[in-house]
Write a structure and sequence with these properties.
Layout: H1 2-26, H2 38-47, E1 53-57, H3 59-64, H4 67-74, E2 78-80, H5 89-96, E3 105-109, H6 127-134, H7 137-142, H8 146-154, H9 156-166, E4 184-185, E5 188-189, H10 215-229, E6 233-236, E7 241-242, H11 248-262, E8 274-275, E9 280-283, E10 286-287, H12 289-305, E11 319-322, E12 327-329, E13 336-340, E14 342-347, E15 352-356, E16 364-370, E17 378-384, H13 387-392, E18 394-396, E19 406-411, E20 414-420, E21 425-427, E22 430-436, E23 447-456, E24 463-466, E25 468-470, E26 478-485, E27 489-491, H14 492-495, E28 496-497, E29 506-508, E30 513-518, E31 521-526, E32 532-536, E33 541-543, E34 548-553
């Protein structure tokens, strides 16, 4: 009789939970929650088939580690599984445990307040109640620990109440803050959502020591032994934090004790990972865009210095964007005026023939852009000239002559030149920008053809837009690329021009691919599986496609 009653209670409770969560799923905001960012993180973790680095921890790592930068720099897939400081430590470990394989690297970076005994397997907030419903595999994680399961179930109704209070049935359309799943690109928060500064006064807090018999320390020691048996490298790194928030002289002793008691080595024994206030966003644990870059660069140094992974070919943090660009001002070539020690040989409808002659100490060939100050915008120039010219040409704005940011070989002695114009000659409501030659005698009497000139809005902190990009044939060069599109898949034949047959090659959008160039051959690889998907010895030109952007990390 008692057993039947218990069964009925369980069935009734299950039915209530099912109805409640069904109601949540009908709410359009449910998968827009910040913690729904776990969905693309888990998908990426499951996709990687080769050696990888996995980051676990709280929001200090979610905000503070740029896996895209790490991947391009190290040449190894990196998955940032960190999300929220309220997720128990044991949950973080159980979540990634089935996907860690021999040779993988696991990096643990948890906030100081999240290392208390109650943070081992007890849930106080609503995070897990939601995370566990976003992916079926999370139910397995909950069932790995009784306390974790029980405290999650008891918080289910708190989750439902929160939704009733905060989320109207019509849902939100715009992304109003970083606390939205749509602020993530795969496992990374998009830079535009962490571009700001911490406004509060920084007050010093006590950094409490961990107890000798800490449940967290004992638990982590057991996981260290488990990962050792699996030949997974397990490391600690302190969370990034505003300098002065804790007593600086107590930070490293805290981690020395932590490392000694768990047996987990630190990636670097000398770094506190405390940064100045100007590098933080909306919390003492949340770096802004600049702080994230500093912290990530430092973490890369630690991994390389420790011998965990070798640094790959140096990839400059500049993205060449192949897309249909919007020109703010496509200047009429007739506006190329006031040449000094240059002369115009011939004007045609689509180009101007120019010759250098005279004094190389002071020369310029500038164009006038009317009615606006274009300081900070991208100046673009398409030239046809010989190699000696392109290797010496300088940007003329105002003040000292400077190099162009990027010169792209378009083939047949044609080049696209880009410069973010930090200094522009601006007078009488007009901007003047152009080119100059340095005082190099072999440049005297050199000719060049100007085919296009324009100014473009800055599309990203380091982005440059082109219509076409010729894949270089430099032996040993490595490039990465990804296709950004609303479609899930795009054929390789849609984004490149090649004499090879590429019709059977499909690319996943918003996913990283790598190109190796050696022995006159270009190999296209799926970065996360390591498999070659296409190879060619012929010329490859990336081309623009409507409603699609191709990013090349060069």
């Amino acid at each position: 009789m008692v057993l039947k009653l218990l069964i009925r209670i369980v069935i009734l409770a299950g039915a209530i939970l099912l109805i409640c969560y069904s109601a949540l799923y009908l709410n359009p905001d449910y998968k827009k929650e910040y913690v729904a960012g776990i969905i693309p993180k888990l998908n990426k973790l499951k996709d990687v088939e080769i050696k990888k680095i996995v980051i676990i921890g709280g929001s200090n790592a979610s905000f503070g580690i740029d896996t895209e930068l790490m991947e391009r720099r190290l040449g190894v897939p990196v998955v940032n599984m960190a999300l929220h400081g309220g997720i128990p430590v044991k949950y973080l470990l159980e979540q990634v445990k089935p996907y860690m394989n021999k040779g993988d690297v696991l990096v643990f970076s948890k906030e100081y307040e999240g290392l208390r005994d109650r943070d081992w397997n007890t849930l106080n907030g609503t995070e897990i109640s939601k995370v566990a419903t976003y992916d079926p595999s999370q139910v397995r994680v909950l069932l790995s620990d009784r306390t974790m399961f029980e405290t999650t179930v008891s918080n289910v109704f708190k989750t439902i109440k929160k939704y009733i209070d905060l989320h109207p049935i019509e849902g939100r359309k715009e992304i109003t803050s970083v606390y939205d799943a749509r602020a993530f690109k795969k496992d990374n928060l998009r830079p535009e959502f962490i571009d700001g500064n911490y406004k509060l006064e920084v007050k010093q807090h006590e950094l409490k020591k961990l107890e000798e018999n800490s449940v967290v320390l004992k638990g982590l020691k057991e996981y260290k032994n488990y990962f050792d048996r699996k030949e997974v490298q397990f490391y600690l790194t302190p969370p990034v934090i505003i300098k002065g928030y804790f007593e600086e002289d107590k930070i490293l002793p805290f981690w020395y004790f932590f490392s000694e008691r768990t047996g987990i080595p630190m990636l670097n024994n000398n770094k506190k990972y405390s940064l100045e206030k100007k590098y933080f966003f909306n919390s003492h644990y949340h770096p802004n865009y600049n702080g994230r870059k500093i912290r990530t660069e430092s973490l890369i140094e630690d991994l390389v210095a420790k011998g965990v992974v070798a640094e790959g070919p140096r990839i400059v943090d500049k993205k060449i964007v192949v897309g249909q660009k919007e020109m703010l001002s496509k200047a009429n070539l007739e506006s190329f005026t006031e040449p000094h020690n240059f002369e115009i040989i011939k004007r045609e409808q689509s180009q101007i023939h120019v010759k250098q002659s005279g004094n190389l100490d002071h020369n310029y060939f500038r164009i006038r852009f009317e009615n606006i100050d274009y300081t900070g915008y991208h100046f673009y120039l398409h030239l046809e000239c010989d190699r000696n010219v392109i290797e010496n040409i300088k940007f003329r704005g105002t003040g000292k002559l400077v190099d162009f940011d990027t010169i792209i070989d378009l083939g047949n002695n044609n080049y696209g030149l880009w410069k973010r114009a930090n200094k522009v000659l601006y007078k009488n409501n007009n901007s003047y920008m152009g080119i100059s030659f340095p005082n190099t005698q072999e440049l005297l009497d050199k000719e060049l053809i100007v085919k296009e000139v324009g100014v473009f809005e800055n599309v990203g902190k380091d982005d440059l837009i082109v219509d076409r990009f010729l894949l270089p044939n430099t032996d040993g060069k490595t490039l990465f690329f990804e296709v950004l599109s609303e479609s899930n898949n795009i054929g390789l034949t849609e984004i490149i021009e090649s004499t090879d047959n590429t019709k059977s090659v499909d690319l996943e959008t918003n996913k990283l691919y790598r190109i190796h160039i050696f022995k006159d051959k270009a190999l296209f690889e799926d970065f996360y599986s390591g498999k070659t998907i296409f190879e060619t010895k012929n010329k490859v030109v990336f081309k623009s496609l409507p409603n699609t952007v191709l990013r090349i990390y060069n």
